[in-house]
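Running co-folding for fe (ii) ion.
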Amino acid sequence: MNRRQAIGSIGAVAAATMIARPSEAKGEKGEKGEKGEKPALVPTAAGAHKVVPLPFTATKLPGLSEKLLVSHHDNNYAGAVKNLNAVELQLDKVTKDTPGFEVAALRERELTYANSTYLHERYFENLGGDGKPSGEVAKALATQFGSLARWEELARVTAMSLGGGSGWVVVAVSPLTNDLRIVGTAGHAPALAAGQPLVVLDMFEHAYALDYGAAHAKYIDALFANLRWDVIDRRFQAARK
Ligand SMILES: [Fe+2]
C-alpha cells in the first residue's frame, strides 16, 4: 500500500465511523435526497460578511498575549472582512461597460481579502489547544511524511522561511490527488488548487511582533504548543467525506 492509498484507507475508516452515527443512519439507508446528504448552498450577500469572534479566551494561550491576539483579530482580520465587503459592493456595480483593468483589480483584491478572511478564521480556530497531535489526521500526516516528527520539522522550517516577512503556512489535503501537502506562501492569494486547509499558521509579522519582535522562532514554538488537534482532525475528516 503506498502513501496515497494509505491516506485513502484512513479516510474510508473515518467515513465509515461517521456513517455509523445513529443520527445519520436514517438518511443513509433510504431517504436519498433528504436533509443531511449534502449541505445546501448558502450564498452570502455582497458586502454582508461578519467578523467571527475569537473562539478562545485571549488571556489563556501560553506564549501568545491577549494584546497580540486581540490586536491581530480586531485590526488585521477584521480589516480583511471590512475590505472584502467593500470590494464586493464595488463588484456589484460592475457592468459590461466597466474597463477590464478595473474589473481585474477588483477581482485581485477580492481574492486577497477573501483568502485573508478565510485563513485568519481557520488560524484562530486551530489555536487554543494543547499542541498534542491526535486523531486520524495525525496518522495521515505520519503516513504522508514518514513520521509526525518529520512533518513537524518540515512545517516548522517552512514557517521559519517566511519569518521577518509575511505569509501563510497551510497544511492541506487535496481531494484531487488524495495526499497532504505543506504550502508556504508570501501572500494571501496563492493557494493549493482544491486544497482543504487543515493546519493554518499566520507568519505575517503582525501575528507575533508585539510579543516577540523579530524573534519569529519563539512565536513558532508558541504556535505549535497551542494547536487544537481536535479541530484539525475534524477538518480532515470533513474533507475526506
Ligand atoms: Fe494575520
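Result summary
Residues 6-34 have pLDDT under 50 and may be disordered.
Residues 66-91 form the longest helix (26 residues).
Job closed.
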